[in-house]
Task: structure prediction
Amino acid sequence: MKKIIFGLIILGVLSGFFAYPFYKKYKGNNVSQSGFIIIPRGASLKQVLDSISPYLSDIKSFKEVAISKHLEDNIKAGRYKIQQGEGNNSLVNMIKAGRQAEDTFRIKDFDDVYQMVGRVSRKTESDSLNFVQSLNRIAKEKGLNSAEDLKPYFFADTYHFYWTTTPEEFFKRFEKEYSEFWNEERIAKEKALGLSRNQIYALASIIQKESGGKEDEQRTIAGLYLNRYKKGMKLQSDPTVIYAINKDFQFKKNIKRIYHKDLSHPSSYNTYAHAGIPPGPICVVNKSSIDNVLNAEKNNYIFMCADPKRIGYHKFTHSDKEHVANAKAYHDWLNRNKIK
Result:
């Protein structure tokens, strides 16, 4: 009996002796620091090893596990999060299964689609040229001229995508959101407003820029511009002048102040030079800006001017004399602060 017990003890010790290296290699902690790695499509095992090695305390053991689990034949492209304390087996399985980490995309009120593409493509496998070519192709399929005509499909907001998201998948996400946004209730308000959808987007982009993104004035501004439009008055919106000038300079100018000479800048987007609503939106809008056009405030305002006492807000009036006084106060403030 003693011999049997002794034998079992010896067997246990030997099992532990051989099992520990196995456990350490496959299950033990091998990630010394957390981080992210990017594995491109068609990557070799060597590329994976080069990417992951800065995060591992023992690259040799990872390579051995990767080979034993045939990782080279099952490498999935993607952006992966490496967690401190993880073991080799967990890492290999993550890459084989393609369990990517999502990345955050902030779609701002970009002036045009190409600006947006430039930012988004930094966080995807597709470069900006591929993005533009793909969006141009999608636009053509929809009977539009170029990717810029797809601007109404995009909403300014924060989104989550994978690094391997293709331009087609990217657009499909927004196309779905666009369709869901334009529900029966909004379509009914659209018809009641008497504007085309493109006009609504153009007006929404103007009030978004005029309000600096602050929602508490947007319905008032929307009501004012609708009043001007219905009266046949020029909208005379400064952001449209800025957009018109910047468009000619590939949006590389930083315009802080509009001068009288700028008001005659030749562009169909310049609402000082042309009556009516511009031919399209001057930026990517958020959903609330569109809703604030569809639910515009009923008021009698036809003039607005930046309020120097409340930076970012405006003074509204239906009186041209009051407007002249408001405009003078604002321009005096600009001059005092040497804003050019």
